[in-house]
Amino acid sequence: MEFSLWLALLGAGAMISLTPGAGAINTMSNALTSGFRRSIWGILGQQLALIIHIAIVAAGVGLLVSSSPLAFHIIRYAGAAYLIYLGIRKLLTKPSTNPDDSATAAESGRSMFLRGFWVNLLNPKAIVFFLAFMPQFIRADAPLAPQYAVLTATVVLIDVVVMWFIFAAGAKQLKHLTGSPRGQLTLNSSFGVLFIGVGLLLALL
Fold it and tell me: Residue 84: which of 5, 202, 185 has the closest Cα?
């Protein structure tokens, strides 16, 4: 993978991980109820599900590349359009306040790992998103396996860092921000612009 493309992957991966979702909420909940250090178990469970999602999509993308490079590029540009669509949808999202999840008593690492795994795995939108996201960083004229390995390692490492050192470490502050309509509006606007920018950038690479 070219260094410039890897830098784009780094930025896109960070943006995706920083977007509050089920995984972030699960991580914040674990950090608040079980502590910063033990919240890593839930994060590791989420990463296993993430790797499975990537493997599922990679198998399909690999088949597509080997059979029709033209179709691959069509999906690539459709994926860029999808990222732009996500950005527009973020900008149009109205803030809402969701009730906090009830805290659970001290959990075992295994319990947090399994919950993190299922929270991420049972999210079909993740597969749809990766189907649009991954072709942006895979080049048909280069060996596929090393590209998938770099993509997977990069995305997983970014997600672990973001989940543990931002969402878990700053759980209280972030929970307060995402629970405020004004804070939600700021986050939605920021991530909306970032999604649109990355979509346009990757379509032109």
Answer: 202
